[in-house]
Amino acid sequence: MSFSKSSPKRTASTSSDEELSFDLYYQLVYMMATASSGISRNRVFALGSDLASVVADCVRDIETLVRTMHYDYPTACRIVGDRTSSRLLKSFLLRLSDALDSGEPIRDFLTQEAHVQADSYENQYERDLESLKKWTDAYASLVVSQALIIIISLISTMIYNVGAGMTAGLVLLAIMMSFFGVWVLSRAAPKEQLIIAPPEGSQQQIRYRKLSLLSLGAATLVGLVSRFAGAGWPLTLTLLSLIMAPLGVLSFLCDRNLAKKEEEIGPFLRSLGNMATSTGTTLTEALKQLDLQSFPTLAADIGLLRTRLNARSDPQLSWRKFGQETGSDLIHRAARIFYDAISLGGDPDEIGAICAAFSSKVAMLRARRRIVASSFNWLTLLMHGALSALMVLVLEIVLSFRSLIETIIDPQQAQQAMQSIDIPLLRFNTGHMSMLSQITIAMVLVLIAANALAIVTTDGGFKPKFLLWSAIMMLLSAVSFGIVPAVVHSIMWRTISG
After folding, report:
1. What is the pLDDT of residues 76-112, one digit of tens each?
2. Where do the structural domains in the chain lie, given as residue ranges?
3. What is the C-alpha to C-alpha distance for residues 318 and 322, in angstroms, rounded to an integer?
4. pTM of the entire predicted model
């Protein structure tokens, strides 16, 4: 009684203890739930080895030693534990070996271990969130530093000719700092699989993944055409924003809807288990009597599950599809535990409580992550708007200052004036000024990409949300490129005329 595997596998040697923490928690809850149905120890290990997790690989190795080499379970657990490089897995397998060797019932051991691992996972997750908060603050400081590097580079041209090599080095440093900050955030964020891995998932997720590639392709094509046609950056960025925004908004709503489903799956499984136990009926009959108004976000998915079960489709396949079509990895795992344990003879009420505790704990931890990410998201948007406007402002001041000096100086005396006034900016030709403009534009575009990646990395979840945050920052940048030059030009020439 098992669902087909839908998650990509990692090995214990390539996964840190932090990444293994959730896999071990899920493995223990699954084996605890199946063991509560009263099946044999051999059956518990056989079912546990069929999960799509790193810990299941170790359980599968134990099963192989028992079946082919005729070891007993305590010895097999000790052998596999000694060979495992992960400290977390080694400790668990050695404790499991001692428990089995002492004759402790496997159900009691797994229940105790599952509760301990739940607390351990929660503590680890909260530590990761605290670390993520610190690094989001650091990332904000890093982005400000990048903008200051470009601003200093622009202002330096008015005082001293720093040279093309130094300017290029400063720009390269700023770009490297941008993506280094994104990498640090990716390492600090909790390691978890939030959605069903491609190509599976909900119909919306599958459709939006495909459309996101088309949207990026269309945006690239429109951007190139508009630039070759001589359109300015305000128009180009506005067009790109309008192309990417609709799908970005839909992806954002899809991800928010997924979070609501995860909050409802625990109460749903608990209510369904209670209904099946109190009425003494099967899950299919209990599902018919359940009021779906209590689960508004999951109602459509539950209704489809009810329809399939009423049509006498394979229950195992129906529950599998239910988990996958919600798009949530958490719901997929919880649904598997629920159906497998009950189909083996477990008490629906008890199994429902186990699954509800598992899914509710994970959902609440992810809700805390979204709170942290939400604050960072809006801070990043405001910071990008302010810094892009500031960089464009400084660039326009430099350009307007040079243009102003050229206007004031008599063209017949320009060469003599430039020799007497030792300002490197006055000796810059059109190519130099174009380079300064290109540096500023390039840094604004780099900040758009880096900040959007930082937001998606911090928030996790559905990756096409990148389009929404990119579109918003492109629109903010378009406003900067369109309004700031006009304001600077107006102020400086009004000063001269006054």
Report:
1. 999 999 988 888 899 999 999 999 888 888 899 999 9
2. 17-104, 130-189+203-260+368-497, 263-361
3. 6
4. 0.86
